[in-house]
Specification:
CATH architecture of the domain at 3-140 and 221-265: 4-Layer Sandwich
Number of strands: 13
Number of helices: 8
Bound molecules: manganese (II) ion
Radius of gyration: 17 Å
Shape: globular
Order of helices and strands: HEHEHEHHHEEHEEEHEEEEE
Strand content: 15-25%
Structural class: alpha/beta
CATH class of the domain at 3-140 and 221-265: Alpha Beta
Strand order of the largest sheet: 3-2-1-12-13
Helix content: 25-40%
Length: 267
Amino acid sequence: MDKSEIAGLLKKAGDIFDGQRNALVTSRIEANKIIFVGDTHGDARITKKVFDAYSDYADMIVFLGDYVDRGKYGIENLMMIIEKLVDAPGKIIMLRGNHESPMINRNYGFMREVEEKIGEDAYKNFAIMFSHMPYAAVVNSYFCVHGGIPQILGKVEDIANLPIGDFNPDNPVAKELLWNDPNDGIRGFIPNLRGPGTYYFGPDVVEKFLAENSLKGIIRGHEVADGFKSNANGKVITVFSSTYHGMSSGILVMEGGEIKEMVKIRL
Ligand SMILES: [Mn+2]
């Protein structure tokens, strides 16, 4: 894939995000067989395995963000998913992670990867595309997001009103959707070790959020886990799909609206 081909695909992806972003949080999407993929972090081999194993099976594949940085194959990983998205926009959902941002890519490897593999001026096209990615989706009454519940979000539909085009989101709701983590040992929100403007949310926050929005649970990425972990009495499921940290890669399979199984992907 050459430089102009990549730029063209990134533009197409941005246009698809613009067309679908609001519907993802306002129209309550339903599908029968769904695969949820957590952080892949430049682990293109895992993403290829998921597509090889599940493309025919799945009606929809939901990626929960963090496609780049850490692993060496961020471009390959991201472009593989974008090609599938462009081929079948209704089948692939690509949510934004906190690593889809220049401030983070400068420190964790992706900006340098792009400069080395494509060229000095190519990174901006990625940054623009990232800034158009959706922050969340409601699928089969599950709230899908990279990080978690923000302090001041009332209704999931309000996510449709967030500003678009922010390279490094500083809107508190947008930032916390990308950065927050569940914590079973607390009530309410407390500051998160990840840094200013990020928070942990307790099981009580989860209960209230799900009830107010008539949702069944939350499926998210963001935290390193041995494939997956659960919080808030199983109401929050974290999926971690990269092997980067020496963890095993996990994905979640949903069928008929229920979580069917968690599967470890082996290379
Ligand atoms: Mn993350």
